[in-house]
């Protein structure tokens, strides 16, 4: 039984109609030139408005922070205006949508920066390769952000939050997970600083707190959330004592009274290579009393069980929402989930294929009847 997945949930000022959320999913469909949303994205998001809450794909806060081909941005008036059709379409379909704010840090290849080095907490290099319009390239060493640059960085987040408000979103989520910039500051494997943003865990979560405070200034705490990944290596970002480090992060979330916290807790086959390490959601429950969202690799039944036990308040589904635009309804009636096709090409390549052409159960039925 999954009935508890269909009870409403209040996340600060945001009313979710059910507890089946759509997780952030980078899809690479923004219009060329890069970073501008388009009408195809509006179709995609509106198709999935049956989710209790849509957490958008990671969206760049600045040219400095965005290094993924055809990913959207939110630092300009043009981008905010281009996001409006997606927001309006989701609202017209009865859904709620929150924009995820993204700075990739050392994961940005110099290709996207006119040859300049990417920025991070310290002079480190991510493992693996970056995807660029010129093909796959090795990551290059980042330069440490100077203390004098931190206010400018926080200002970039503030500007992005203001643009998201202009676009009509229901709130914003700070991307502080998966080895991107904020995570690079949080974890001691990537943060080698000796100033007030480095060293002990309470210093390494300082940027997390200051950015969240800026977002709250714009939106209010009741419309601001965060995503964290408090376990295992993530794109080369790791920590020697995750319980202490993320305990401090949890204290920040609790002290600021965030509308929600989402934790990415994958198993051994997770996207970013995490191993099956101890989960940290109980740690967050000690310090944060607001709505807790868990992700990933859930079935509907597993989500229902964890909500019933009090382990979490909602579950965000990622890849299942790619191929099942009506995932919530499929869970409600215990229907089969459609698999992703042409993986991973269809996840990221431009066009409708593998993006807006997955049918709902009702559309499948009509097609068979015709």
Labels describing this entry:
alpha/beta; two-stranded antiparallel ribbon; 15% strand; 370 residues; eight-stranded parallel β-sheet
Please work out how many helical segments DSSP would assign. Answer: 13
The residue ranges in which pLDDT falls below 50 over 5 or more consecutive positions are: 268-277
- Tell me the series of helices and strands, N- to C-terminal: EEEHEHEEEEEHEHHHEHEHEHEHHHH
Order of strands, main sheet, comes to 3-14-13-12-11-10-5-4
Question: In one word, what is the shape?
Answer: globular
Mean pLDDT: 94
Cα distance spanning the termini: 33 Å
Specify the biggest β-sheet. 8 strands, parallel
Strand element count? 14
What does it look like?
By secondary structure, the chain is α/β, with parallel strands linked by helices. It has helices at residues 39-47, 77-92, 150-167, 181-186, 201-204, 206-219, 242-256, 281-287, 300-309, 319-323, 327-332, 345-348, 361-369, and strands at residues 9-11, 14-16, 20-22, 54-60, 97-102, 119-120, 129-132, 135-138, 143-144, 172-175, 224-228, 260-264, 292-295, 314-317. The strands form 4 sheets. The protein has an 8-stranded parallel β-sheet with strand order 3-14-13-12-11-10-5-4. Helix 3 runs parallel beside helix 6 (206-219) and helix 6 (206-219) packs parallel to helix 7. The radius of gyration is 19 Å and the shape is globular. Residues 268-277 have low confidence and may be disordered.
């Amino acid at each position: 039984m999954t009935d508890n997945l269909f009870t409403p949930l209040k996340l600060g000022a945001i009313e979710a109609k059910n507890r089946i959320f759509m997780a952030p999913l980078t899809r690479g469909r923004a219009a060329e030139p890069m970073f501008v949303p388009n009408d195809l994205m509006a179709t995609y998001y509106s198709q999935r408005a049956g989710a209790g809450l849509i957490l958008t794909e990671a969206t760049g806060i600045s040219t400095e922070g965005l290094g993924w081909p055809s990913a959207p941005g939110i630092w300009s008036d043009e981008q905010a205006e281009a996001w409006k059709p997606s927001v309006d379409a989701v609202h017209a379909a009865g859904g709620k949508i929150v924009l995820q704010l993204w700075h990739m840090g050392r994961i940005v290849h110099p290709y996207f920066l006119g040859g300049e080095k990417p920025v991070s907490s310290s002079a480190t290099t991510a493992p693996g390769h970056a995807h660029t319009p010129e093909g796959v390239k090795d990551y290059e060493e980042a330069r440490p952000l100077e203390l004098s640059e931190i206010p400018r960085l926080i200002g970039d987040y503030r500007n992005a939050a203001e643009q998201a408000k202009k676009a009509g979103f229901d709130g914003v989520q700070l991307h502080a997970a998966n080895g991107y910039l904020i995570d690079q500051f949080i974890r001691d494997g990537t943060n080698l600083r000796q100033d007030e943003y480095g060293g002990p865990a309470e210093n390494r979560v300082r940027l997390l707190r200051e950015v969240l405070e800026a977002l709250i200034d714009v939106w209010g705490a009741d419309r601001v959330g965060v995503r964290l990944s408090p376990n295992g290596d993530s794109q080369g970002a790791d920590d020697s004592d995750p319980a202490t480090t993320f305990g401090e992060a949890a204290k920040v979330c609790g002290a600021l009274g965030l509308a929600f916290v989402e934790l990415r807790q994958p198993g051994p086959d997770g996207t970013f290579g995490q191993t099956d390490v101890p989960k940290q959601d109980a740690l967050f429950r000690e310090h944060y009393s607001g709505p807790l969202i868990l992700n990933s690799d859930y079935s509907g039944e597993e989500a229902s069980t964890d909500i019933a036990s009090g382990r979490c308040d909602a579950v965000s589904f990622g890849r299942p929402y790619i191929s099942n635009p009506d995932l919530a309804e499929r869970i409600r009636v215990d229907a089969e989930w459609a698999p992703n096709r042409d993986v991973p090409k269809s996840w990221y390549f431009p066009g409708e294929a593998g993006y807006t052409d997955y049918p709902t159960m009702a559309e499948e039925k009509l097609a068979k009847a015709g």
